[in-house]
Amino acid sequence: MNFKLLQDNLNFLQDLKDLEDLKKKLELYEKFFKSYSKAHNISNFKELEREIIASLKILDFKDLSFAENAIDLGSGAGFPAVFLAIVLKANFTLFEPNPKKASFLSLIKSELELDNLSIIKEKIELHAPKFKARLITSRALMKIPQLITACKGFFDEDSLFVFYKGSSLQSELVGLKDYKIYEFDKRRYCLILGAKLC
């Protein structure tokens, strides 16, 4: 794990109190990611550092420490939710219907001692009871209008959506207004307040 690469690209790390704990957890993640991927092919990421930077870069643009609880849709191998959960104090609920990926996330929760993670092995649309999240994240799962629809019942006017998107973002924003976009490398972070959707 090239931790210096993270430090060079993530400004908020300068103010993080326990860098050693973060480094230890990221090294553990890398170890289990590589071994698990060999057997189960959960992701084809070659440069983990770049993916971790993309997951955490939003914290250079927006303070998310307000969130007591958060939801991540289609968590896959844990990008961005696992890494946000390491840094933030919020309780994260990860919705991942794929059994292999959900098992990997459960392994990561245990091995990294992330007590603020809960993994639910189903699509959010099928989950009951509903609960309100202050922060909802998703990376490249589906288009923004469908993501918002899928989250019905899980957000209110105080919720903040953070969508991790690529270059086709603008085409997904037709009909939406009052959003904020931050850019880093090829990643676009689209933030929408629940108040604009309720």
Tell me about this structure.
This protein has 198 residues and is of the alpha/beta class. It has helices spanning 3-9, 19-40, 48-56, 58-61, 81-87, 99-111, 144-150, 169-172; strands at 69-73, 91-95, 117-120, 135-139, 160-165, 179-184, 187-193. The longest helix is centred in the N-terminal third of the chain and has 22 residues, at 19-40. The termini are far apart.
Q: What keyword list fits this structure?
A:
seven-stranded mixed sheet; alpha/beta; 37% helix; 198 residues
Instruction: Determine the fraction of residues in helical runs and give it as a percent range.
Output: 25-40%
- Biggest sheet, in brief? 7 strands, mixed
Strand order of the largest sheet: 3-2-1-4-5-7-6
User: How confident overall, as mean pLDDT?
Assistant: 94
Number of helices: 8
Gap from first CA to last CA:
42 Å
Write down the oligomeric state: single chain
Overall 3D shape: globular
> Can you count the beta strands?
7
Structural class: alpha/beta
β-sheet strand percentage: 15-25%
| Element-by-element helix/strand order | HHHHEHEHEEHEHEE
What is the CA-atom radius of gyration, in angstroms?
16 Å
The unreliable regions are none
